[in-house]
Amino acid sequence: MISYKKRTDGRRFDELREMDAKVGVIPRANGSAMFKNGKSLAIAAVYGPREMNPAFMRNPKKATLRVYYNMMAFSGSGERVRPGPSRRSKEINLVMEKAFEPVLDLVEFPNTAVDVFVELIQTDAGTRCAAINAAALALADAGINMKEMISAIAVGKVYDKICVDLTKEEEDMEAVDIPIAMTSNSGKITLLQMDGVLSREDLKEIMKQARDATLKVLELQKKALMEKYGGQQNE
Amino acid sequence: MNKQYIMDLLKKGKRADNRGLEDYREITVEYGISPKNAEGSARVKIGETEVVCGVKFEVGTPFPDKPDEGTIMVNAELSPLSSPDFETGPPRIDSIELARVVDRGIRESKCLDFKKLCIKEGEKVWMVYIDLYSINNGGNLFDAASLVALAALKDAKLPKYDEKSEKIVYEEKLKTGLHLNELPVEVTVCKVGETFFVDPNFDEEDAVDARLTVAVLEDGRIAALQKGNIVALTPEEIDHMVEMAQKISSSLRLKL
After folding, report:
1. Spatial distance between the Cα atoms of B111 and B154, rounded to a whole number of angstroms
2. Do A72 and B133 touch (CB under 8 A)?
3. Nearest-CA distance from B183 to chain A in Å?
4. Cα distances (angstroms) measured from residue A122 to each of A168, A174, B91, B236
5. From the CA of B252, how many Å to the nearest CA of chain A?
6. Which of A68, A89, B40, B93 is least surrounded, with the fewest CB atoms within 10 Å of its CB?
7. Cα gap B21→B82, rounded to integer Å
8. Which residue of A has its CA nearest to B34?
């Protein structure tokens, strides 16, 4: 069994990559934000509540959240990514929608759509987490009612060590990767996926570390919102 | 803003934001905005309008009629993130036109030496993929897209090609860039009533009767044209629009 002694970029095992966040980066959108997680860079825009088409998809009880995740053609390592949706991106759309639904209050606007578009400008693992963090800020910026904030991070295991916020280089080693999205106040999990093999104990430890890590993400999200809204924002 | 009001102002030679008819909004160019995986990248902002571009290299077989020349492919995505009017789904005609107009400026100006993109005649050449994405549509995506494509090409460095394994080593970028022997800047001149002006913002663009995109070379010659919108233009008007584009193009080129 190989032991992972030192992370390739020199971080502590529980240390996140350098992050950056900014709210209100796309003037035409109702809400927007960018979130940078190491070298992974996501920008998100929210349009809505607006008319929902096709009409038969309308929900008379509440607005429908639609998420679109897209990697720009030049954003991935190796060959160019062919533009357009893939099976992978469609699944990410689905799990991202489910990640937000528990905290969104959409009953005020029945029959409408709230559209969230996320573009990845550069990718280095953890892109769905960066996408969620940007989308959460964009939803807040658009004034969509949220009961709690959503923050996401990937925690995994590289060889024998539990590591927070893996890079692509680490993911490509003997690694398990678990993206996790959590609610800010109650620490409940709204997105959970996993690639690889783990023990139950490891998963418990990973969820514990994910809570600590997402609280750090949350801190930055709050700071980014404060930068735009100052005192007006009631968290 | 009211379309009629903007049209009336323009017909009097005035603009809602007090710009002169030949004035662009503030232009910023940023290089290397996606340096990890793209071989070249850039961002251009013209006022609130923002477009990003990335360059990726692949190796492919040349066209039979040009066995010693590499190829370029320009693709534009009018991202639904950048405007409430853009939708998801396969590229619509607007984005295809945008990509083809940018492509034509680069291709016809011969600003890239396609022969230098040949690895082995008749067998292997570099294929240069130029991907454009609108981030915020505040009007005049044409000029922003043309400018950012040139910036990303300027930023691009070839990856290493391993002859033995016949594979690209994307992790190793060479010092060799793409030598651009021209900067074919595109200027779109718009017409409303009898007024000619450049760089329409979002509201102005909606009021435009006719537009003409002109790719201008450094010595003033023109390399590509595209007329758009529904109003017909006289040869004299076209000549006037080309003259305006020639005059204004050098100030855009200085931004690169």
Report:
1. 11
2. yes
3. 23
4. 12, 23, 22, 47
5. 24
6. B93
7. 26
8. A122
Helix (H) or strand (E) holding A10: none
- CATH code, domain with A87: 3.30.230.70
Backbone φ and ψ of B84, nearest 5°: -65, -15
- Containing structural domain, residue A201: 19-230
Return the residue in A72, A79, A172 with the most chain B beta carbons within 10 A, the one to mutate for interface testing: A72
Could you give the ipTM of this predicted complex?
A: 0.95
Q: When comparing pLDDT for A231 and B218, which is higher? A: B218
Closest listed residue to residue B148, CA positions, set B138, B160, B133: B133
CATH code of B3-253, in short, is: 3.30.230.70
Nearest CA in chain A to B77: A83
| pLDDT-based confidence at residue A233 (cuts at 50, 70, 90) | very low
Does residue B254 sit in helix, strand or coil?
A: coil
| Positive or negative torsion for Cα B4, B7, B11, B15 | positive
pLDDT at position A232: 58
Q: What is the dihedral of CA B62, A76, A116, B206, to 10 degrees?
A: -40
Q: Which residues does B100 contact at the CB level (< 8 Å), separation at least 6?
A: B74
CA-nearest of A95, A110, A98, A106 to A142 is A106
Q: What is the pLDDT of residue B45?
A: 98
Q: pLDDT category, B2, cuts 50, 70, 90? A: confident
For residue B233, give the amino acid letter: L
pLDDT of residue B176: 87
Whether residue A95 is contained in a domain is answered as yes
Q: Domain map of chain B by residue range?
A: 3-253
CA-CA distance, B99 to B177, in Å (whole number)? 23
Write out chain A residues lying below 8 Å of B140, CB-based: none
User: How many domains does chain A contain in total?
Assistant: 1
Are B217 and B190 contacting, i.e. CB atoms less than 8 angstroms apart? no
Q: What angle do the packed helices A87-100 and A127-141 form, to 10 degrees?
A: 50
Residue A136 lies in a domain: yes
Confidence of residue B1 (pLDDT cuts 50, 70, 90): low
CB atoms within 10 A of CB A3: 7
Dihedral of alpha carbons B240, B242, B243, B247, sign: positive
Whole-structure pTM over 0.90, yes or no? yes
DSSP element (H, E) containing A97: helix A87-100
- Beta partners for residue A178, in sequence order: A155
CB B95 within 8 A of CB B76: yes
Instruction: Look at residue A74 and tell me if it is in a domain.
Output: yes
